[in-house]
């Protein structure tokens, strides 16, 4: 259960970053560094997993003579975030009870 | 940078398929180029990567997500998961179970092959005996028919044995994959 939560959190972090705008590998790592420490070698399997789950789509854009791979959240990815938020609403309530 | 990427490619090629290797190399190439552009030195960038860890993580990730539909993928994934299990102390007990399973599966396969080969030889001898026996045409065709029918049944049994082994491998690989994935997820947080 604990590991499932960790897995979910990491994926949601990446999806949340991509909710704002399409982004590329380096920028995703940089943006995430404000909230969580995530190396490039950690990010790669997550991006790949989300892509395989059809929660992300990718496209290439030419940038200064080289390819830059952009990641875009899909409808399925947005639903993943919503489902996660719904589940965590209950966790927040538990937290509120404990903190009262 | 090119030498580092080449070295990574060489290591990955030993374990992964070409398309998987190209995807990973392209990811790291882009990362390095972006970091160079932001002003980091190449030495600083390359020093931040642990090539062995990259190879281990992406290999595991790729193997676990592979489609096991073909015999080639099934065979390669089986071998790589076995290497992973026996090289990780915590997963060693699972590796031993896995080895025991592989031995059982191969025994079943060999049994299937033995049944097929003995069936072929049996049929040949059976037909020669029939020709040597002084039988009427009706007896000859009748007995030959029974022989061919029995041989077909043997072949069918062999084919089912092979199919059972394949299904067993897939089920076990999925079960082990789920188990290992939990470990991978926890390592991602480290």
Mean pLDDT of chain A equals 88
How much of the polypeptide of chain B forms β-strand, as a percent range? under 5%
Biggest interface and its residues per chain?
A: A-B, 23 and 26 residues
* Strand arrangement across the biggest beta sheet of chain A: 1-3-2
- In what range is the share of β-strand residues of chain A? 15-25%
Shape of chain B: elongated
Q: How many extended strands of chain A?
A: 3
How many β strands of chain B by DSSP? Answer: 0
Quick overview:
The complex is a heterodimer of chains A (100) and B (190). With 100 residues, chain A is of the alpha+beta class.
Write the topology of this structure:
The complex is a heterodimer of chains A (100) and B (190).
Chain A: H1 2-20, E1 23-24, H2 25-32, H3 40-52, E2 56-63, E3 66-73, H4 75-99
Antiparallel strand pairs in A: 1-3, 2-3
Helix pairs in contact in A: 1-4
Chain B: H1 2-13, H2 18-37, H3 42-47, H4 51-65, H5 71-87, H6 92-132, H7 137-188
Helix pairs in contact in B: 1-2, 4-7, 5-6, 5-7, 6-7
How would you describe this structure in keywords?
heterodimer; A: 100 residues; alpha+beta; 3-stranded antiparallel sheet; 4 helices; B: 190 residues; mainly alpha; 0% strand
Q: How is this structure best described in words?
A:
The complex is a heterodimer of chains A (100) and B (190). Chain A has helices spanning 2-20, 25-32, 40-52, 75-99, and strands spanning 23-24, 56-63, 66-73. With 100 residues, chain A is an alpha+beta fold. A three-stranded antiparallel β-sheet of chain A has the order 1-3-2. In chain A, strand 2 and strand 3 (66-73) form a beta hairpin. The longest helix of chain A is centred in the last third of the chain and has 25 residues, at 75-99. Chain A is elongated. Chain A starts with a helix and ends with a helix. Chain B has seven helices and no strands. Chain B is elongated, with a radius of gyration of 26 Å. Helices cover 86% and strands 0% of the residues of chain B. Chain B starts with a helix and ends with a helix. Chain B is mostly helical and 190 residues long. In chain B, helix 1 (2-13) runs antiparallel to helix 2 (18-37), helix 5 (71-87) runs antiparallel to helix 6 and helix 5 packs across helix 7 (137-188). At the A-B interface, helix 1, helix 2, helix 3 and strand 3 of A face helix 2, helix 4 and helix 7 of B.
